[in-house]
Specification:
The complex is a heterodimer.
Chain A lengths: L6 H4 L15 H13 L1 H7 L4 H23 L1 H4 L2 H30 L7 H12 L2 H4 L2 H26 L4 H20 L4 E2 L3 H8 L1 E2 L2 E2 H19 L1 H11 L1 H6 L4 H27 L1 E2 L7 H11 L11 H20 L4 H20 L2 H15 L1
Antiparallel strand pairs in A: 1-4, 2-3
Helix pairs in contact in A: 2-3, 4-17, 6-12, 6-13, 6-15, 6-16, 6-17, 7-9, 7-10, 7-15, 9-10, 9-15, 11-15, 12-13, 13-15, 16-17, 16-18, 17-18
Chain B lengths: L5 H22 L28 E7 L5 H16 L3 E7 L4 H13 L4 E4 L8 H9 L4 E4 L11 E4 L2 H19 L6 E4 L6 H16 L4 E4 L6 H14 L5 E4 L2 H14 L5 E6 L2 H9 L4 E6 L4 H14 L14 E3 L4 E3 L3 H4 L5
Parallel strand pairs in B: 1-2, 1-3, 3-4, 4-5, 5-11, 6-7, 6-8, 8-9, 9-10
Antiparallel strand pairs in B: 10-12
Helix pairs in contact in B: 2-10, 5-6, 7-8
Classes of the chains: A mainly alpha, B alpha/beta.
Chain lengths: 374, 350
């Protein structure tokens, strides 16, 4: 019964996981040792651990370019600092819901899975939290309902995938359909207004000039970052996604961990459901349409490997903000949404292409040249 | 055998208990009873057409969309049918796409109803079905989404999308002229842009505005959902620091648009809605938001379609008209609801 986790290894002392040590590339070690002689900080930058940071810098570069394009095309707006500040907050606010979903999605993808049901879970949680019966329990009842519904659906996903051995794509696709169906059933296909001022104020209130939604996004991102980078849970996630067999041999309960990842994704959807309900002052079964694709796309351009084992929370956040900025850019220029979707598609393809031509090796090549020159 | 400490199993029991408790609690939270939307039916009036006649079996099919308007269509049809003692309604689920609806309708034809009322997923794709049923001698009433072939239907009853745009623009122009705004900034929030109905609405809006020398400054399409409405409106506000008027095509997504308006604190403009939801009418009547008018595209057409299907099945005409049979085509006028007349229309809100 407990053969997967025999007692001696039940509490592993942070086992050295094969998946965590990256494949050693001769050129890379040469570069690394070369760099080590010059400066420790530089070697970090060029080494494997600097990979995510370099990639994120590239994403920030893209953001800067987008802002410059915006400033060039609508200087009449950008010349007003108040407008620019307000617009930045608006971009962050629009990014907040998908951003929270993307944090959960990033964990699932790093763990080697995919969650296609996030939009549907979000809609179901939002609908369930805004029924007349739930609203009679006040804001606390609504928040509790949204979180528990999201978490429970995530757990069901996790059980189907880890213990039912369904392929994640199939299990979550089935959940996508089923959860939307249940949401339509509960709401009777009507738009459910949220009459709770506390909930509605989440989207309109500000603290120190910054909208509450942005704080929620920041809190979820910070929690996600800590969870991924500073805890055993995070290291296990990378290990499970990178090489599940090695992770199992190292004493990780892969099945339970996979279940927890989907539960986490579901919980993020529950949080996002409250935020979306607050933003729209209502919920309906058709909301959050295709958010799963937005979240996956954001994680991918943020450098998360679709096959698992690699990814950063900050990268995913930047991915979401880039999409949100593009939407904003097209809106302020009055361009059609068709063109916007084409640009989004182009950016996704470009991001994946960049991953394939080994972003890392290019920067290291440049770095080595600079070393030999000096 | 296992080495689990009792402590762990107690924790599991606790988790299990909490989970079951939460489940029971939440299951009770799905009830939604306090918001029954009243269906729009025509109460029986006196007159020869309302005398119970030959029993008519009406087959009915509409898409299962998650949209308030479609839901209202189905509810209206059912309510109107039950208002007649001589009508039996046979609803069939239309499924998720035209193919599913075609399959459902073929089984309906084989049951030989007297009349079929259908709101197709897509008029063009279900044209062949209309022809087939008409050839089989069953009159087909097309609801809202036209069949291209005139032989495919006995009666066409639909809303006026172009007219909606015209009505919205006419109201906006009149208001702006009354205020003396010469060069107004007009925003537009359409629904799903790929749909023909959206394009027709926009065309009517633009044509009418152009006739007065006005034009739309920015146009942010939403997707008929509340969250997309909120996002589209937020984008519009960022693009246009000052707005004079907005036309939002759809009152369902308008809930999100109104949320965005409240969140941005913008109120220098007035807004016109579309379709005519109950919420929109109440807001207009209360006159405490920027929503000042809405142009109708009423789902009451489903109730009318059932009434007309009954007349067609019984071979009667419309009593106010000279003709002995029901006409072939009826296009609802898009009416403008303002504070002054909102009380008359409230019963038609969905």
């Amino acid at each position: 019964m407990s053969d997967a986790t025999p007692t001696p290894t039940a509490t592993p002392e942070r086992p050295q996981l094969p998946a965590q040590s990256p494949p050693v590339d001769p050129a890379e070690t040469a570069a690394a040792s070369e760099a080590a002689t010059t400066s420790n900080r530089l070697s970090w930058w060029r080494g494997d651990s600097g990979e995510g940071a370099r990639r994120n810098l590239g994403l920030i570069g893209v953001l800067v370019v987008l802002v410059i394009i915006g400033a060039m095309t609508r200087w009449d707006l950008y010349s007003n600092p108040d407008w620019v500040w307000g617009n930045t907050l608006t971009i962050l606010k629009l990014a907040s819901v998908v951003g929270v979903v993307t944090v959960g999605m990033t964990f699932v993808i790093i763990g080697g899975g995919i969650d296609l049901s996030v939009g549907a879970i979000l809609a179901l949680s939002a609908v369930w939290a805004t029924t007349v019966a739930t609203q009679s329990y006040g804001a606390g009842g609504m928040i509790f309902t949204a979180l528990v519904v999201g978490l429970s659906v995530g757990v069901v996903n996790g059980i189907l995938i880890s213990y039912g051995r369904l392929v994640p794509f199939i299990a979550t696709l089935a959940m996508l359909v089923a959860a939307r169906g249940l949401a339509a059933e509960i709401s009777n296909k009507q738009t459910q207004l949220s009459n709770n001022t506390f909930i509605n104020n989440i989207a309109s209130e500000k603290l120190l000039g910054i909208p509450l939604l942005v704080y929620i996004l920041a809190a979820v991102v910070a929690a996600g970052w800590v969870l991924l980078n500073r805890t055993t849970f995070g290291r296990r996630t990378v290990a499970v996604g990178g090489n599940p067999e090695a992770a199992r041999l190292a004493g990780i309960n892969v099945r339970r961990h996979t279940l927890l990842l989907y539960a986490l994704s579901g919980l993020c959807c529950g949080i996002a459901a409250i935020m979306l309900t607050a933003q729209a002052n209502s919920a309906q079964a058709a909301t959050a349409n295709l958010y799963e694709l937005d979240a996956i796309a954001a994680a991918i351009i943020g450098g998360t490997l679709l096959s698992g084992g690699r990814g950063t929370i900050i990268g995913s956040l930047l991915g979401v903000i880039i999409f949100s900025t593009i939407t904003n850019l097209f809106a302020i220029n009055g361009l059609s949404s068709e063109a916007q979707n084409m640009v989004k598609g182009g950016i996704i393809v470009a991001a994946v292409l960049v991953q394939q031509v080994q972003f890392r090796s290019i920067t290291q090549f440049l770095g080595r040249n600079r070393l030999t020159n000096s | 055998m296992t080495q689990h400490s009792p402590d762990l199993s107690r924790r599991r029991m606790l988790f299990g208990g909490v989970a079951v408790g939460a489940g029971v609690l939440l299951a009770g939270c799905t009830s939604n009873e306090s918001s029954p939307t009243t269906a729009q039916t025509k109460a029986a009036a006196t007159g020869v057409n309302n005398e119970p006649g030959k029993k008519v079996v009406i087959g009915f099919s509409a898409p299962a969309d998650d949209h308030g308007w479609i839901a209202a269509i189905t509810n209206n049809a059912k309510a109107q049918a039950s208002a007649f003692s001589d009508v039996e309604l046979k609803p069939v689920a239309a499924g998720a796409d035209p193919a599913a609806q075609r399959a459902a309708l073929s089984t309906l034809v084989s049951q030989k109803p007297d009349v079929i009322v259908v709101l197709p997923h897509d008029g063009k794709e279900l044209n062949a079905f209309g022809l087939e049923a008409m050839t089989a001698g069953i009159p087909v009433i097309n609801l809202d989404r036209a069949f291209p072939d005139a032989r495919a239907y006995r009666l066409q009853i639909k809303g006026d999308n172009y007219g909606m745009g015209v009505a919205a623009a006419t109201y906006i122009i009149a208001q702006l002229k009354a205020k003396g705004v010469s060069n107004p900034v007009i925003g537009e929030i359409p629904g799903i842009d790929a749909l023909e109905l959206t394009q027709e609405r926009t065309k009517g809006f633009n044509d009418t505005l152009a006739a007065s020398g006005f034009k739309v400054a920015n146009r942010r399409p939403a997707e008929f959902t509340v969250d997309s409405g909120q996002q589209a409106a937020t984008g519009l506000f960022q693009a246009l620091p000052k707005i004079d008027a907005i036309w939002n095509h759809d009152d369902d997504q308008g809930v999100g648009v109104m949320a965005a308006i409240n969140q941005s604190g913008r109120k220098e403009f007035f807004m016109v809605g579309g379709a005519g939801s109950k919420k929109a009418m109440e807001d207009i009547q209360a006159d405490n938001t920027v929503l000042k008018a809405t142009v109708t595209y009423s789902p009451s057409m489903a109730s009318s379609a059932i009434s007309l299907a009954r007349l067609i099945g019984q071979g009667k005409g419309m009593s106010d008209l000279v003709e002995l049979q029901v006409p072939k085509e009826i296009v609802l006028a898009s009416e403008t609801i303002t504070k002054e007349n909102a009380s008359n229309y409230l019963k038609l809100g969905f």
